[in-house]
User: What shape does this take?
Amino acid sequence: MIDFKDVIEEWAIKYKPMQHTPGKTGKNKRFFLFDNIVSIPNIISGLPKTKSPCVGYELSQEGSIKGGKIKPTHVIYFMVKADNNLANDKDVCYEATREAVLHMKKFIAWIRTQQETRKELANINVETEDIHYSTYGPFLNNWYAIFIELSDVETFNLCIDDNDYIQEEGMQE
Assistant: This one.
């Protein structure tokens, strides 16, 4: 079973504007895992050679469970560095945000195609027709991001496995 974060990293490797190099010491690291939105500046500032654009996946998740289905929400960030360090240059800020939106749209188109054509992604059922997004930035003066929330649907087995529990006669007082 493929994890959704691995699919995002695959996109970052194949997507020409990024061409992410996987691994902790990748020379062109463009895919990041982080806890939440607050930790993005710490990760980017810790990697001074981080190039733009890049993509991140938030490990913290929300979701719901209903009728034997678990519905996690995946949060993905598309980050772009503005051409200058002036956070008050609103034209440059606007262009950086628009570029992040473009990368987001290209990812959504790619993931739709992957879900339709790749059988090994049968466990990934992200909803790409109704997506919430929001912009974020500037952070570290000249980085801008747009994040999207993709809902997934996973069926899980509701059966009880007796091996997971202590049996009555095996319980000690």
User: Anything to note?
Assistant: Strands lie at 31-34, 54-58, 62-66, 69-81, 132-139, 143-151, 154-155. Residues 28 and 163 are 46 Å apart (CA to CA). The mean pLDDT is 84. The chain has one domain: 4-156.
